[in-house]
Design a protein that fits this description.
This protein is mainly alpha-helical. Helices cover about 65% and strands about 0% of the residues. It has 11 helices and no strands. The longest helix is centred in the middle third of the chain and has 17 residues. The protein is globular, with a radius of gyration of 17 Å. It starts with a helix and ends in a 6-residue tail after the last helix. The relative contact order is 0.15.
Length: about 190
Amino acid sequence: MFDAKWFFNLEKRLVRAGLGSDLDSFDVIKKRLSSGEKFDADEFARQAAYVILAGGFSQKTAKAKHVEIMDALKKGAPLENIFRNKNKTRAIQKIWNDRSACRDGYYKCVGLDAKLDYLAKLPHIGKITANHLARNLGEDIVKYDVWIMRLGSRFPGGADKMFAHLVKETGLPRGYIDVVLWKAMQQGLIND
């Protein structure tokens, strides 16, 4: 456990089972974490909407509602008919309406800490979700959720040391390792 062979086996099993994704596929996430590409305003808002939906819901539910919500936003239709959580729909609508300013504000930030602080102040984001959004925007960061913290507690020195070790073992960005380990834990591929 916690070596390259173990990690790549988990990754392969997830992909074979059709589970190789967060909002985007593992391949897209891996490329994004290495490329430093910048998103346009619509894609920035798309990513923000997804992480807002993903907080507290299954990935399956979040993905399904996300498609409907993005279609409604592009058509100018009300979100409440799709998703009844008013706090989340208001936040998604606000970010969509202000997407250019939100995106520009994010890219004006210098350094990861400033970017995380900025994202955490967006409607319905907060600290943990800011890490998720930053990772989906291409920042090589870990979303320290309950699954990752549980797994990290099994590694000598905790989650940070686990990620440093796996980066060295695999040569992959820690943000990508995070996505794969989270999905493997969530799917029960790693025994608790």
